[in-house]
Amino acid sequence: MFRNILWLIVLAAIISSCVPNKRVVILQHDAEPKRGTIKNSDTLSRTYKTHLTGYVLKPNDIISLNVASITPGEFDFVKKYEEQLGLIRKLNQYDQGSKTGGQGGGGNVNQGMGGGGQSGAGISGLSLDRMPTGFQLDAAGNLELPFIGMIKLAGLTVPQTEALFKEKLKGYFETPVVRVQLLSFHLTILGEVTKAGRYTSYSPNTSIIDAITLADNLNDFADRSKIKVIRQEGEKATVFYVNMLAEDLLAQPGYFLQPNDLIIVPPLKARFLTKYGIQSYSAALTVITSTITMLVLISTLNN
Question: Residue ranges of the alpha helices (H) in the chain?
């Protein structure tokens, strides 16, 4: 009888530690089609209006500026000026202890302060983030170039910045084609993901799903219903939650991220039960079973 009760307790603990599909599958909708009922894969089910407005440059952003032209390369003063500035290095990349270098987004190599990061798992501290050569906007959002002078870039989108540079460079390059890329879109992802850390995205329209993909996806015990996003806006930090289980996430303002967002993925209760609860129940069951067996044996011998 005692054994049956104990096994029921263990069985209840195992069941409570299971994670149903509804807590794992992202972008769900109440009107999902039943299995085998989809006839045409191109059938439109729903549409959402997203909050994709285009990232606008801000003070201290870092951008790359590349100019293609039929003008001979030796007259490309933009490239020469960028190369003279050297590599952009900042103490903002976490060292994940990877033997093959860091993880952050675009092939950045994480090296420790003294010449080689620490080995081992987990976040070990800050190290130098080596980025490609680029131009950093000043505190007012301006960029100064030789011959061109000071240009106000803060408040412009990347396409608007490209158009402005193209117009400014017409007198120095013949039929210039300009490409601008944001180099300082950093994201920090912690919690129940495969590879927690700080990453760099080179797309100004990075979504929460893109960020999770950079971290090599969520693990099985991540609580996808209340992912916390902390955003620094000047002297103010704002906190909001994202429910990745709901399909209408696509229409939510939090779907698209901003540079330096901190994303925290909390665990489900099943994680604690699986990691600690089952082990505790098993240990307790062993002790109690052994005690009961000894008492039964003593009682049998006495009789």
Answer: 2-16, 77-85, 158-169, 208-214, 269-272, 278-302
Element spanning 125, H or E: none
Cα–Cα distances (Å) from 197 to 110, 153, 294, in that order, read 12, 30, 52
Q: Please report, for the domain that includes residue 229, its CATH number.
A: 3.10.560.10
SS3 139: coil
What CATH number should be reported for the domain holding residue 179?
3.30.1950.10
Nearest in space to 77 (alpha carbons), one of 147, 29, 171: 147
Inter-CA distances, 249 with 27, 150, 185, 208, 271, Å: 7, 41, 22, 10, 25
Return d(Cα 128, Cα 116) in angstroms, integer.
Answer: 10
- SS3 at position 89: strand
Angstrom distance (rounded) from CA 127 to CA 192: 23
Q: Are 61 and 161 in contact (CB under 8 A)?
A: no
Other C-beta atoms lying within 10 Å of the C-beta of residue 245:
17
pTM score of the predicted model: 0.69
pLDDT, one tens digit per residue, over 110-130 is 333 233 334 344 444 545 555
**What is the Cα–Cα distance from 43 to 31, expressed in whole angstroms?**
14
